[in-house]
Amino acid sequence: MKDNQDKIIEVLNVEGGVVVMPTDTIYGIIGRACDRRAVEKIYKLKMRTLSKPLIVLISDISDLDKFSIHLAEVDRRILEKMWPGPFSVDLEMNTERFAYINKEKKLAVRIPDFDVLRDIIRHTGPLVAPSANLEGQSPATTILEAKKYFGGGVNLYVDNGEILEGEPSTLLSLKNGTIKVFRQGRGDLKLLNNGVSHYLL
Question: Structure pTM?
Fold first, then answer.
């Protein structure tokens, strides 16, 4: 994917630009989180219910400032243990600016454990990155499957072969040191050891 990095950045930085590409977990359909047109395009392509929020990928914990997310120190320490990694964490925003991603003033955020993807984000800003499939369908394991879902609606497809071992991230909430797991995925909290005060399955 490194060979396609410049092209990916170019496409994403055009208003409404959408790319299907590998993430740190599975193939995703990607657009800039601060580009409302791209986000709305992804909802339409996925036929996704508008009330279902999207996960946002960031390159560094400081990117949370862009979404007016202010962390308690204990939560910052926990996130530094989790990230980069397959943990998407639901955090409260102090703004309504991103209601087109989540109307409840919350944002599920992850720093991907994928150097190339983090570098792309440094050039584009945070990205929405839901799985590459229609709502209710199985995630695409190949670019051919993704093209059957989205056809010409996507500006760029990046082929990285078949991803059979793909598994979505673990989705959880974090507030004042307490973690609640909503979806158990690739990430295993038990491997984090120190830094997690307690969590609820």
Answer: 0.89
